Request: fold
Amino acid sequence: MALKGNLRDFSFSQLLNLISLAKKTGTLQVHGPERATSISFDVGKLSYAQNSKKDHGLAAILLRSEKLTDKQYQVIKDKANNIGDKELGLMLINSNYVTQDEILASLKTEFVSTANDLFTWEEGIFHFENNLKPSADKISLLINLENIIIEGSRQLQEMERLQDELPSLDMALKFTDNPGTNIRNVNLSVKEWRVVSFINPKNSMKQIAKTTKLDEFEFRRIVYSLIQAGLVEIIRPEGVAPPTPKVPTLPVEGAEEQKSLVNRLINRIRSL
Amino acid sequence: MQTVKMVVTGPFSSGKTQFIQTVSEIDVVATERKISSESERIKETTTVAMDFGRITVDDDLVLYLFGTPGQKRFDFMWEILSEGMLGFVVMVDSSRPETFREARRILETFRAYAPTPYVVTANKQDLEDAWDPEDMRIALRLAPEVKLLPCTATNKESVKNALLELLYSILERMESD
Reply:
């Protein structure tokens, strides 16, 4: 029987739970308004995942996990573009570019991240194709779903909180005018430094997130921690006009008549 | 007859219904229901549609006060209620810091619907564990120019003060245009 529907009615965590309990083998394809994702399972475990917005070749995955440099990636793309992932992996291991463990860890991070992304989808048509496996040249893993379900649900809650804290990434950031704080004395991670280096009233948060290549969740988490530490504050980007304050809706026209009406209200409230 | 409208908003159980009741000349038309959700069972009833109070100014001018539903699942009412409002009051329960984030979200949402003047009230200041308004300003991340008023919604003078401060802000906005 076909397993298909909409994430709006049957959430991704429910789907994962079902696949895990029923020990299903096959591929789940989800088509959302902006992108499509495909996740393969082998006897109820996650074996492969790819997202239509990302290059899912092994070289691109290793570049994203910083196991390959831009230059190495470019050489592979130019000279070995037609080689399958398994063959490319062996070549990279044999030439001492990366170890087998590094490849497996990078793939696991990529697959789990692709799956985690689906937790945030409110809508998406899904279809589970029984026994459909990834192509033979792809490297498959076997990742337990329980941790993904728990971690994904936790991240979803955290994302909701971060969205409350940072409702719009169209705003910019600036360093706070706090003379007691010197950012050089604060211990920041590499990713946090990357964000910090782009903080400027001219750059919107959306632009910084794109430039630093951080996913939205990670970017929001970094910005939130910088705000909480009192290092940065949110401002309107330079060159973007603030929304025009709206003169309240009044049943009379003309400035003097409107002021008179408000004064009547003031006098009445005072007299209560 | 001319009518003007102000909206009283804020998180669940922040005191919106009481605020309107304190100054309304009619019994507030409150659409309250018993609370079914255990997590929101801080009080017995909550507003499910809106509260509605009235202050007659003179023969041809009436001020209506609308209170928004407090529970998150009635958010869809906010946009309807904010249409054509003169300004709005954001009520915050000073003794429940766990609601401050929700208060900020509501404030931002209303500002987006209609950038009309507003005031924020630090309500329930009569309670022993109420936060100091200036600490609340920091927690709510309110800019210095935003009016944050200590308030006790059961006290008429306190409610009058909040409404007057909002009206002064409206007048200032008109004069600066």
About this structure: Chain A has ten helices and seven strands. Chain A touches chain B at residues 161, 164-165, 167, 243-252, 255, 258-259, 261-266, 268-270, 272 (CB under 8 Å).
